[in-house]
UniProtKB/TrEMBL annotation:
This is L-serine dehydratase. Residues 326-404 form the ACT domain. It comes from the Bacteria. Its EC number is 4.3.1.17, 4.3.1.19.
Amino acid sequence: MTVTIDEIRKAAGEIHGEVVRTPFVHAKRLSDILGCELYLKLESQQYSGSFKDRGALYRIKNLTPEQRKKGVIAMSAGNHAQGVALHAKRLGIPATIVMPETAPFSKIERTRALGAKVILSGETLDDSRKVVDEIVARDGTIFIHPYDDEYVIAGQGTIGLEMLEDQPDLDAIVVPIGGGGILSGISIASQALKPGIKLYGVEANLFPSMSQALKHQPATSGGSTMADGIAVKEPGKLTREIIDQRVEEIFLVDESQIETAILTLVEEQKVVSEGAGATGVAAIIANADKFKGMKIATVICGGNIDARMLSGLLMRGLMRDNRLVRIRTEMVDQPGLLAKISRIIGLTRGNIIDVMHQRHYYDVPAKMVEIDFIVETRDQAHVDEIITKLEEEGIKTRILSSRSTD
């Protein structure tokens, strides 16, 4: 089978009603900021929280009755795992998922909750593949590849059909790349419907496997990235050929850009995205001049972010924007000091979140006391106002870094 627009339309018909036709929303606030007309395809709203539902389901539906009896196996950092587990369970097919030991806890537990047998092995998907191959050779289980499979590519291509049906005059689409399945499918569908449309890919700069493969450069992928869903060391062979023919450019985004994109989506669009899902927005922000005045789209390909990570990112964002600061005060230790400082901060409308009272450490003089306050503030001007008021009252004050332990 060669993936064509007809095969993608066939996939759309077969999975209709069994996956979500996800919202394709105009990101008005981001559009105003970036100077373009930006649309977000919210694949984070799929049953499993990512676009992987589509390709996994279409592949499973094309198994023979004999293959279904043998069961299916997949390797995944989490999203493909949940897509395979969900639809295998619905269709009464045994599923085994091999996941890297570094996969987020939330994705591991959700995969188990969907009824799949989960095996943790290795640090990356490539490590997990070794275990998959052993089980396939031993038991004859059917391997559902996360991206390098024509049925999977066709299933992911249904996203492109939906985007062009909703917004037929798009100028460009920006899509995250792990193994390349989603970008391959979307590029085939969208360029069949609108031949002049431009396709762009995005990779985490720690895992530039597709861009390096296309440039015949040595592979350097590795490291810890927030975009674990696209942390692939070796891209697909099928997908590499499709992307080489159809994609205009591949952008690389770093960890700070991914973090900023996650926070921007939450604050400006009220959209929760995992790291991989936010890379399209990260690339558009980093290349805003390229897309100015254009009608563009990106896929929020997953929303399965660990709650603790999201909480930490939101707190870091507040600190970076000076909306949450750590203030250290120093004075002679005397009754009423804590109340005095708290009153001054309160009068400036600062909101005290936490207090750390230090008088017993060796580096604090015996008659002195250091008190740290975590304060919620409006902006840098508000922080300056609080510092000025405290110092006017004779209270020595300084701002600590959000990471300081001094």
